[in-house]
UniProtKB/TrEMBL annotation:
This is Glycoside hydrolase family 92 protein. GO terms for biological process: carbohydrate metabolic process; glycoprotein catabolic process. Pfam families: Glyco_hydro_92, Glyco_hydro_92N. It comes from the Bacteria. Transmembrane segments: none annotated. One of its GO terms (cellular component) is cytosol. Residues 297-758 form the Glycosyl hydrolase family domain.
Length: 782
């Protein structure tokens, strides 16, 4: 390989193990992790990522919106505000999801306008001159972690964005000789429909400061968000307009003094024009957010002092540190994909509490966090699989504890006393299924992460798993499954509940709470009640115990037996006991045949165009959605790890590219990206809570994982290239590894995982039963 330009320290440390020579002295070094990230990846196709400025886990995601005029049914493609193939930019708003499968946010849109004519409606992409939006060219864009820039062609304005933890900063360079204006639109949103904005306010505090709030009804009901905005130049004039009532307030002309400088407006459709006259230098606009009140936003504004360049430099340093946790040597495209994936995994769960500790909880009341920064944006159905487990390896224990304390605080604040399901800015959406905050907490606890009250956490987990009205848990507890005639998506809910129950049992067992452990180990076996041995699929049952008919394992319909999938994807979801599932399927050979049949299925006669989340198909394997993410690794559980290696090659080559359309499906708050980070390193957490990572195959030549405890875990792949995709042998710290998994403890102890790659599959490595990953029914003890 020609990609051996690795750190000198690593070459020294591993020189006895590495057979290839280091790069020659005249070979250019690889770009830094920071410079390798491409935030444009996923902004096209169905990745739903945004290219704008954000700090690691930042409250503010300041990014361009190319269109917010979509209707509810057409907003899916603009869930992140920006689509790479759109020809115009409508403005820059302060909140965005990274890769969500649903749209919302897009709060407080700002658009710079130059000249004498200022329109207060956005207009349309088909006719940009009909509104304040502007055309732009991708050639003028710069996107880096924490920084975005673009030239707005219609106004000749250079727009630059950066962000800190709780602030976003705009810098606009206006053309000489033309008046500078900003349009501040409080009407726009990424989930538009009549009545979306319930109420909004805007207040001019002085000639450099504006504050306001708005209350919206969208994906999250009754959401309140406030802002504080400060300008580097004084206002020359302003206009606040409520377009619903057609009432205009014309403010002062010239620098404000005394009571003339104060203006206030309220209503459902507020838009503002802010005038600055001709400017001799760029205009900076610093914005802070708060879900509490205007005072909270002003406090957050003061909490991060400094101008544009100061905030940008601080955030760049944060990103350099966060991305430097993994050092990667690989071919260019692989390196770009992996570092961008790592970047995407560090955007959520985002800070949602104010600098003074206050936050708005799921009860819509204001609370105060005790010694931690409250976090939200929990896409838990997606992220419990790999995103949250990755954070236990790449983030300090204090960050992971902060995440868990935020989950527990939300449970305490919840009117129903349960943990978050899909929450953002403290507000619950009730989207997706399961109670997947449970495995996040259990996995962290079992890995030795402290900083939270374990007994309080276990009680919260049990409360969520026994709240009968949620997802028909009442029938699940009574019948041992969720009946489809009582609850939609019953087959999926049964198997997901059973996994969550197993993680409760594991944590309770570790804590010595034997009664809880026994109860939930029993519930962890409830997946059996939905498995049909005649068809070999997990299926939905009715209350009378009969499977629902007719049955088509390829059918995908929302509200049917399965969640965003069908029997092919969901019949593999028994991560706590894959051995028992495969035994029920007829044994190893039958399971291998069924796995092969899934990947090789001919979809030519199927039409899934009605299902937005079904993308990235390889047969009936659907990489663009989460239920399939662990399936390629399941060959390890049936003694055929070479087939895992083959399928992973197939997936990585077809599902990830260093291009705007380079993600096959929604990144889902980092889950698609976390899958790639783990898979690139050669292992994956199939069963969070098992303390094991299942070995696949590496896609990097070398990597160093800098662990939170100060140690290093090194991955080396000798002979890796396209012609050598199979694992020939594996050693751990120089000793042959004959099993297809490594443990969390082995990683945290530091050391070297060394692969030797070859052209043909090794059909003997890690094939016997003792070499296979954890399953509940075959584990030595529970």
């Amino acid at each position: 390989m020609s990609h051996k330009s690795f750190l000198a320290s690593l070459l020294v440390a591993t020189s006895a193990l590495v057979s290839n020579s280091p790069a020659s002295a005249d070979q250019a070094p690889s770009p830094s992790p920071y410079d390798t990230v491409d935030p444009m990846i996923g902004t096209g196709g169905e990745g739903h990522t945004f290219p704008g400025a954000v700090a690691p886990f930042g409250m503010v995601q300041l990014s361009p919106d190319t269109d917010t005029t979509c209707t509810v049914r057409s907003c899916y493609g603009h869930a992140a505000g920006y689509r790479y193939d759109d020809p115009t930019i409508q403005g820059f708003s302060h909140t965005h999801f990274s890769g969500a499968g649903h749209s919302d946010l897009g709060d407080f849109l700002i658009m710079p306008v130059s000249g004498d004519k200022v329109l207060l409606d956005p207009g349309s992409g088909d006719d940009p001159s009909s509104g304040y939006r502007s055309r732009y060219s991708h050639a003028s864009e710069v996107a880096q972690p924490g920084y975005y820039a673009v030239t707005l062609s219609d106004y000749d304005v250079r727009a630059e964005l950066t962000a800190g933890t709780r602030v976003g900063v705009h810098r606009y360079t206006f053309p000489a000789g033309k008046a500078a204006h900003l349009v501040l639109d409080l009407r726009t949103s990424l989930y538009n429909y009549p009545g979306k904005v319930l109420w909004s306010t805007i207040r001019l505090r002085d000639d450099r400061t504006i504050t306001g709030c708005r209350q919206t009804r969208g994906w999250a009901p009754d959401r309140i968000l406030c802002f504080a905005m400060r300008f580097s130049q004084p206002l020359a004039g302003h206009l606040f307009e409520n377009t619903e009532e057609n009432i205009t307030y014309k403010g002062f002309q010239g620098p404000g003094r005394g009571s003339d400088a104060v203006a206030y407006r309220q209503g459902r459709q507020i838009v503002a024009r802010l005038d600055f006259g001709q400017l001799a230098k760029p205009l900076e606009v610093k914005v802070a957010l708060s879900s509490v009140d205007e005072a909270g936003a002003l406090g957050n504004l003061a909490s991060e002092p400094g101008d544009f360049d100061t905030i940008r430099a601080a955030t760049r340093a944060c990103w350099q540190k966060a991305l430097g946790v993994i050092e990667i040597d690989a071919p260019r495209d692989t390196r770009v994909n992996l570092y961008t994936a790592l970047y995407h995994t560090l955007l959520a769960p985002s800070v949602a509490g104010d600098a003074d500790g206050r936050y708005r909880g799921p009860d819509n009341q204001v609370h105060k966090a005790d010694g931690f920064a409250f976090r939200s944006t929990f896409s838990l159905w997606d992220t419990f699989r790999a995103e949250q487990p990755l954070l236990t390896l790449i983030q300090p224990a204090s960050v992971n504890a902060e995440i868990i304390n935020s989950l527990l605080a939300s449970q305490q604040d919840s009117p129903f006393g349960i943990l978050p399901v899909w929450q953002f800015q403290g507000r619950e959406t009730w989207t997706m299924i399961g109670y997947h905050a449970v495995p996040v907490i259990a996995d962290a606890y079992l890995k030795g992460i402290g900083g939270f009250d374990a007994n309080k956490a276990l009680d919260a987990m049990v409360a969520s798993a026994t709240y009968a009205p949620y997802g028909d848990l009442g029938d699940y507890m009574k019948l041992g499954y969720v009946p489809i005639d009582k609850e939609p998506e019953a087959a999926s809910k049964t198997v997901e509940y059973a996994f969550d129950d197993w993680t409760i049992a594991r944590m309770a067992q570790k804590m010595g709470r034997k009664d809880v452990a026994a109860r939930f180990f029993k519930r962890a076996g409830y997946w059996r009640n939905t498995f049909d041995p005649k068809t070999g699929f997990v299926r939905a049952k009715k209350s009378d115990g009969q499977f629902r008919t007719p049955f088509d394992p390829t059918a995908i319909n929302y509200g049917s037996d399965y969640t965003e999938g069908n029997a092919w994807q969901y019949s593999w979801f028994v991560p706590q006991d894959q051995a028992a599932l495969f035994k029920a399927m007829g044994g190893d050979k039958a399971a291998v045949a069924k796995l092969d049949a899934m990947f090789d299925y001919d979809n030519s006669k199927l039409d899934y165009s009605h299902a937005e989340d079904i993308s990235g198909l390889i047969g009936q394997y659907i990489h663009g959605n989460e239920p399939s993410h662990h399936v390629a690794y399941l060959y390890d559980y049936v003694g055929a790890p070479w087939k895992t290696q083959k399928r992973l090659t197939q997936i990585v080559d077809s599902q990830y590219k260093p291009t705007p359309d380079g993600l096959s499906g929604n990144d889902d708050l980092g889950q698609m990206s976390a899958w790639l980070v783990f898979t690139g390193l050669g292992f994956y957490p199939v069963t969070p809570g098992s303390l094991q990572y299942v070995i696949g195959r590496p896609f990097v030549d070398h990597a160093v994982l800098h662990l939170p405890n100060g140690k290093q875990f090194i991955v080396i792949a000798d002979g890796l290239d396209k012609a050598h995709p199979y694992v020939g042998s594996v050693t751990l710290d120089g000793r042959p590894l004959q099993r297809s998994y490594i443990t969390h403890g082995e990683i945290m102890a530091g050391g070297t995982l060394h692969f030797t790659m070859q052209a043909k599959p090794d059909k003997h490595w890690a094939t016997n039963a003792a070499s296979r990953p954890y399953s509940m029914s075959t584990a030595a003890s529970q």
